[in-house]
TrEMBL record:
Keywords noted in UniProt: Lyase, Metal-binding
GO molecular function: aldehyde-lyase activity; metal ion binding
UniProt cross-references to PANTHER family, sorted A to Z: 2-KETO-3-DEOXY-L-RHAMNONATE ALDOLASE (PTHR30502), SYNTHASE, PUTATIVE-RELATED (PTHR30502:SF8)
Pfam families (UniProt xref): HpcH_HpaI
Coiled-coil residues: none
Domain HpcH/HpaI aldolase/citrate lyase: 93-287
Official protein name in the record: HpcH/HpaI aldolase/citrate lyase family protein
SUPFAM superfamilies: Phosphoenolpyruvate/pyruvate domain
Organism: Aspergillus flavus (strain ATCC 200026 / FGSC A1120 / IAM 13836 / NRRL 3357 / JCM 12722 / SRRC 167)
Length: 380
């Protein structure tokens, strides 16, 4: 996956630190290439500087009056600006705490494909919300077979939810009812979700239920032939706030390049255009995986404005490969041979050249990436 420009390790709290000087180059999302970001101190200052450099939307401008309440993700999505997301697949709050220090607008938590029980999922949502100080919106994918999770994550402060494999208007209506309070939906009163006067603060004339209903973005994931066929009626369902396109499952349904997430086949491009036209006619944003800078441009042309471009697992694999390559090059030269070594011995394997090592690590990274791609029963 992709992300932002590779940054040097910066301790912003160090006297004399000049962030513009210490960046390896001007921070920009134009090339969308992330290895890793280390925020040693003052992540809020780092984020504000990055947003100034990239003219990125500031999530803090959309916060509710308490972090216990959801950020207005719906308004962010309708701001006319691109939103950039990361993903947290490692099922542990410590992973979420680290992700929360990165400068993305939202974090994708996938309860469809990751082993996230209710308690852990609520913990991840709250960790993202509080450890980012409201700078990152928790966005959660929950399968239809676990409807109770919707009330849990919304009560914990998630700013958006998406249900995979929405195939018709009836299913979209059921999703809306799970997420909205009466009269629009059937969401139950959540006792003790908000505690005390500070957590219950709201704008004059609004209740906390008004904030929940007006801030939380409800997405339908389109990734089946039936969903594609019915996308216009899905978009017209009141309370649906956006579409999430699962290109992997959609392409498999079309019998196109098993396991692929992008392509240029006419039937596939026609499907994306149909979804774009339906969303545009109903003023709905479109979200999905950015995949690569080349694929990103097609997605922008197809009306997408929110992109998941990074994830914790891919970042670890990419950073490991880049770090080993950088340091072995520095120590032993680009040919990978140890000075004075016998028979061309190299640092890493003793018998293999650096090219061999780089190839081996590249295979590890590609294996990790392929593990995040869809299987026949998964999405995207």
């Amino acid at each position: 996956m992709a992300g932002c420009t590779n940054l040097s390790v910066i301790n912003i709290g160090t006297p004399g630190c000049d962030i513009k000087r210490d960046l390896k180059r001007e921070v920009s999302f134009s090339d969308l290439k992330l290895t890793s970001v280390t925020l040693m101190t003052a992540p809020a200052f780092f984020e504000s500087t990055l947003r100034k450099e990239t003219k990125m939307l500031n999530t803090k401008d959309y916060n509710a009056m308490s972090l216990a309440q959801p950020t207005n993700f719906k308004a962010m999505l309708n701001s006319g600006q691109f939103l950039w997301g990361t993903g947290c697949r490692i099922p542990h709050p410590e992973a979420a705490r680290i992700i929360a220090a990165t400068p993305f607008h939202f974090c994708f938590l996938d309860a469809e494909h990751a082993p996230l029980n209710a308690t852990l999922l609520v913990s991840l949502v709250r960790t993202i919300q509080y450890q980012s100080n409201g700078c990152m919106v928790p966005f959660v994918r929950i399968p239809r077979c676990s409807p109770e999770l919707y009330n849990y994550v919304l009560g914990a402060g998630a700013g958006g939810v998406v249900m995979p494999h929405i195939q018709n208007a009836k299913q979209a209506e059921e999703l809306v009812r799970l997420c909205r309070f009466p009269p629009m939906g059937d969401r139950s009163f959540p006792p003790a979700a908000l505690i005390g006067e500070q957590q219950n603060r709201t704008p004059i004339g609004q209740s906390t239920y008004d904030v929940w209903d007006s801030h939380v973005a409800v997405f339908c994931q389109i990734e089946d032939l039936e969903g594609l066929e019915n996308v216009e009626e899905i978009c017209r369902v009141p309370g649906v706030d956006g579409l999430f396109i699962g290109t992997g499952d959609l392409r498999m349904c079309m019998k196109l390049s098993h396991g692929s997430l992008d392509g240029d086949e006419p039937v596939y491009l026609a499907a994306l255009k149909k979804i774009r036209d339906a969303a545009k006619a109903n003023n709905l944003p479109i979200m999905g995986f950015g995949i690569s800078p080349a694929a990103l441009q097609l997605r922008i042309d197809m009306g997408w404005n929110a992109f998941i471009i990074h994830g914790d697992i891919d970042a670890i694999c990419t950073s490991a490969t880049d770090s080993l390559q950088t340091y072995t090059n520095a120590a032993y030269g680009r040919n990978g041979h140890q000075d004075g070594g016998k028979n061309g011995e190299s640092l890493v394997s003793g018998t293999r050249s650096l090219d061999d090592v780089a190839c081996r690590l590249s295979n590890v990274t590609m294996t990790a990436k392929s593990s995040m791609q869809p299987r026949s029963h998964q999405s995207p």
